[in-house]
Amino acid sequence: MVIGDREALAWVLSTRQTAFPAARAGQASRLSAGDELLIYTTRGCFRNPTRDRGRVVALATVAAPVTRDTAPVRFGDREYPLRCPLRVTELAPFGTGPVLADHVAALHAFPDPRSWSVRLRRPLVLLDAHDRDLLVGLLRPDLVPLDDALAEYLRRGAPVRRSHRAAPP
After folding, report:
1. What is the CATH number of domain 2-154?
2. Least C-beta-crowded within 10 Å: which of 31, 88, 116, 135?
3. The model's pTM
4. Domain ranges in the chain?
5. Which Gene3D superfamilies does the record cross-reference, listed alphabetically (predicted)?
């Protein structure tokens, strides 16, 4: 599961659910209870792609099928009316978790290592058993109980509040 926005990531981790745009209904509808999702944060997720790396940060399990919500969640100007609950019990502390770019050559999901990031322009990327096992094996040593790492992700996912001060007289 590809997440490219810090506020969306904070929402996913705090509410333990995920959401999809209506345009991805076909892909999202294939999810079933019990399916595993690796949560991947893009380089731009925390709005500093020169500093941050794209990382796998958690393993989640789909808790129930995707349903259409009458009150879609919104991030920026985008609407996400399709939702499903997740079980997330462990999370890599902020700034840890395997850097996906370091392992692209070993992953079947990216047959052309030169253009691998193009495949991450959708919310779900299908992994075969080899890719899943490799990434979970790399992720496991970094995982801690969710509550031990969640606060930093929530802090970094909070919207920036700009104050509007009156100009001095």
Report:
1. 3.10.590.10
2. 116
3. 0.90
4. 2-154
5. ph1033 like domains
